[in-house]
Amino acid sequence: MAKAHICLSFIILLYISSGHFMRVNAQSQGFWCVAKPGTTTKQLQKNLDYACSKIDCQVVSTGGTCYSPDNLYNMASVAMNLYYQAEGRYFGNCNFEGSSLIAITDPSYGSCKYQFNK
After folding, report:
1. Model pTM greater than 0.70?
2. CB 114 within 8 Å of CB 78
3. Which residue has the higher pLDDT, 14 or 43?
């Protein structure tokens, strides 16, 4: 049995050292509000409209760093997160009629950086 534990430990060590695990930078840890996968287009648009009626959504407007007219999911997620961050990161501010979730890893991509207030 001891040989099996040593062998398994060795395999795990090889896997870790090969770089297959995602490394999370300590600065990128936090909480972000994003749309749940599978949320309907209608609900995503509703979430986007609601969030942008409450906060500045210039970043998802034409020319903004997160403007992506072909990807409503990403635009809605950015706006939902902006609202969540602006309202103090309370769970209830990331509800959006049950179409959202709290992410614990930074969902930023490319030049689109998700806001995170410390």
Report:
1. yes
2. yes
3. 43
Report the alpha-carbon distance of residue 72 to residue 69 in Å, rounded: 6
For 43-84, the pLDDT digits (tens) are: 999 999 999 999 999 999 999 999 999 999 999 999 999 999
3-state secondary structure string, the chain?
Answer: CHHHHHHHHHHHHHHHHCCCCCCCCHHHEEEEEEECCCCCHHHHHHHHHHHHHHCCCHHHCCCCCCCCCCCHHHHHHHHHHHHHHHCCCCHHHHCHHHCEEEEEECCCECCECCCCCC
